[in-house]
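Record type: monomer structure entry
Structure origin: computed from sequence
Chain ID: A
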Amino acid sequence: MGRQIRLYMTEEDEKEFVEFVMPTGKIEIMTEDMKARDERWEAIPPWTEDGRHSDVFFHNTEIPGDLFYLYDQVKDAFSISTSESPVIEFTRSKQRVDALMSGRLYTVFKACSFDAEAYVPKDPAFNKWYEKIIRWIKRRYQRQEWNTYAGPKAMELNKRGGTFRRMGFGRG
């Protein structure tokens, strides 16, 4: 029920992407390891050596729908349930020397309704918002393979001999 698009982005590509996303609505940025449910970022947080902030969530507060939180007792931190909440999960590309590890945009368009014991569509405005973002990527990025796109600066890196590696292969 989820949809994703794989991405290769340098830090410059990511910056341009986030600059596009932010004015598409009243956008909140959340991370996968919030110390409190109301923790929000005004800008995308920097990467850390331990891999924190590799996943962020974009939430357009102009689109109806409640946020659902997950709590990790080991980390003593909250995260957002992508499957239940009207958010777009952004797993960031990571550059390692001359290689870019893929990132992705991922979301789910139907949420489980425990009252109805069924999956119900999220608000139609959420789908429109996601599609607007995907169209921007497809217009500006170069397609690498099915559902995989590379940003302009990522393509420059690739032309200089840099390589693209899929998420999960050598990532970490």
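Annotation 1: The mean pLDDT is 87.
Annotation 2: The CA atoms of residues 99 and 163 lie 5 Å apart.
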